[in-house]
Specification:
homodimer; about 325 residues; 14 helices
Chain lengths: ~325, ~325
Amino acid sequence: MNISRRLVRSLVMTLLGGLSFIALPAAAQDPLPSWNDTGPKKAIIAFVARVTKPGTPDFVPVNQRIATFDNDGTLWAEQPVYFQFEFAIDRIKLLSAGHPEWKTQEPFASLMEGDIPRALARGEQDVVDAISATHAGMTTEAFDRIARDWIRTKRDARFKRTYISLVYQPMIELLDYLRANGFKTFIVSGGGAEFIRAFAEEAYGIPPDQVVGSSGRLKYQMRGDVPELLKLPAVDFINDKDGKVVGIQKFIGRRPIAAFGNSDGDQQMLEWTAAGKGPRLALLVHHTDATREWAYDRDSRIGTLDKALDMAVEKKWTVVSMKDDWNAIFPKQ
Amino acid sequence: MNISRRLVRSLVMTLLGGLSFIALPAAAQDPLPSWNDTGPKKAIIAFVARVTKPGTPDFVPVNQRIATFDNDGTLWAEQPVYFQFEFAIDRIKLLSAGHPEWKTQEPFASLMEGDIPRALARGEQDVVDAISATHAGMTTEAFDRIARDWIRTKRDARFKRTYISLVYQPMIELLDYLRANGFKTFIVSGGGAEFIRAFAEEAYGIPPDQVVGSSGRLKYQMRGDVPELLKLPAVDFINDKDGKVVGIQKFIGRRPIAAFGNSDGDQQMLEWTAAGKGPRLALLVHHTDATREWAYDRDSRIGTLDKALDMAVEKKWTVVSMKDDWNAIFPKQ
């Protein structure tokens, strides 16, 4: 996945999609080869055809073709715990030499031992604060280097793949397909924006300014005569549930016409998207494939899919069964 | 200024700029006709040539060609007071029927009489709170409609032009020129993001998600079974001075290589931009033309240009004299 090749390709596809009045050779190739010819693929292709046909009532101008994607569990895997959580645990281990008190202090002690349930036992806020501490006290540029490196070199326990290769091949095809049809694609994630930006351009073709996520406070200061941005150990914005709709308005400023998620954290984003006028696509990825990936929904602590699944049935949103609707999960290596 | 024509044009120009390896007919037309052939125009063209020439050490890949523009006083006028301030005063007058107490309550009383100095006498915070109140208590969509209409119909006292036509023609050419060379152009303004978004796409070809500005808090809620975003009368983020650099990181996530401002509020943005590695363009618009526009700098309450002007001299930033370097100010009507 070479950045400049992806960008040029993305640019060309955007142009081809945007200038749909130019005659093009018929697209002989399947744009979504990792999707089986089942309901979700048909729904996606029908939606795109509907909004891109000039002169029809459902036509949507290019500048309004906004598509938002959750990240964890929608664009890449999230089990057994969010990858940023794994990253934070590695940071705690690395920094622990300078913090002997962590050996007995919770949640650090449990996190270093990999006992996540015990770490979470005292409440999520403690863990969030601990993660926040490992992401602060450095410049934004230093953090970017650390995250960039970890995501590309560290491998997960089950698949033995680098984290950056635990992205979903069908969703990468979907992102490309939407951009080829004039859509602007955004990530709208509960995860940290700076963490996602460290790989989203290479993995998904999504530039940093199209990543909306949770964030910590920043401080602009001079080190000698060199300006720098310091990451502070304080949460600024949590981009989850209601916060995703707020984040969409703050960062994108326009209601999406298509939204993609996998958990209750995405329910409001899909609800907001679906409630707009005209054709809308609201899609949930349902993790149903314990063999090739993971199977979980209502009872999972990570990526809980419960209320949003009920709403999907009620509102007739598109639900992807990874087992039945995808013929590939991760990119070939 | 038709939106879809602008968008298609912008898309084509982006492609032509991005795919600079494709042979193009020599650009016979001057891309910056409203700029005199003086220092600033030469500096801009030399900078763009330098960063877009493949195979040279100064070449900057398309995805890193980020240019940020202040809005008030840089892309459109800002005297005798910020236009959003005029908008807020009109809102106060309109809402005053339901608020009889405002007739004696400051700063409302002074604002309704148009006595800005007296309104500001008790401190800026009171005025900011009053403006904030006029921008809240409605949905984001209702606010957008109100702002969109006001900016296109209300005329200023001196030039008798609609506010949307008080944009600077040379800067519009500059935005187009940068985009034609593969730049992604952003507004980074102390003004309200939602207010600027109501006209930036039509006036500048800048879509809502590329507008970074100050903002109020939002609340996602259901009205019956219809979701809505309510604007709350509380400031969330002030995108000015240090805040502009923080805003750039939060919203864009990448350091600009070119930045354009006109006041001390832009100093940190230009400093941050200029401090990056490789070629950089930091430019200040100096208001020197009392005949065609306004002349002000160090002593002006609006758009104070004092410390940033000293820094521009010290750091050899480009300074545009509107009187000497621009042969047109506003678009022809």
